[in-house]
Amino acid sequence: MPLLIEVDKKCCEVFPIIVPDSLLKTVNFFLFKRENSLSLIDAGWNNEDCWKALNLALRNNGFSLTDLTEIILTHHHIDHIGLVNRIVSQHPIPVYTSPLSIPRLKRDKDFLEMRIEFYQKLYQEMGCGETAKERIAYLKKAAFDNKGNTLQADIRSITSKSLFNLDIVEIAGHAPDQLAFWNQRESWLFAGDLLLEHISSNALVEPDEFGKRLPTLSQHIKSLQKCMELDVSLVYPGHGNLIKNPNDLIKKRLERTEAKCQRLIKLIKSGITTASDIAVTWYKNIYYEQFGLVMSEIIGHLDYLEMQGKIEKQLINGVWQFKVVS
Ligand SMILES: [Zn+2]
Question: Which architecture, in CATH terms, is 5-106+151-245?
Fold first, then answer.
């Protein structure tokens, strides 16, 4: 049963849609009601569970699908945009998102090809060799197989500072296009996957639109710090429980990142000098099982340490070798 959180009828109401998920605990998306509009913030997976949960939440609160006035997306990931095509095919409403989401949501051919080349070169230079081949083959296949996921909607770039009583906060890191929506009056933050209660959110390595690697971990840290400064009373996250007064959890996440950095420095000092060797030493079999996630984690932390001047790298025989700056 979707929860009902009713706060102040004069301002706005939120009706969370919480769908159990074996992998992610829950997939969450939200009906955000103001006087004359009803937004859907994110749109879950494209599956029957999410579709039924959306319709039930609408019905239980006296709405129907045609009452939705727009969809607003926190980021382009597949577990946040799933129902968009199904909704707009029955009820054409605009979809608001970061301008950075658009080549991803439109599955722009040039962009997807650039992205595959980016990972190919990256994994090669990080010393992943054969292990990367499977991942690259998967990315190539996904680029073809997932064509049907292209959003067929009136997509509108969010370029203003606020939208529908919500201030726009850029919170890149987990995804380059991730946005949070801040309702100052109630101190609510719709934060996508910036902060999750039950697991720490990954900063996934990604290229920018020109194929240059983004400093995703340092972006993620800045985004968490931004969230802390807002002094949020309630985070509406993309997965897991709603998070009341999140600052202690944010501090915990930031401390964990620092601890990981220290462990990385120790490994490099011990003579493990390539990103792939660090990944194998640290993650053992998980390196092979969750290659993309593990390499994101290691590369993100290495980039972050390099930006801080704590480590440096040298390309030797086509593979980056890292060393601690003494
Ligand atoms: Zn997610």
Answer: 4-Layer Sandwich (3.60)
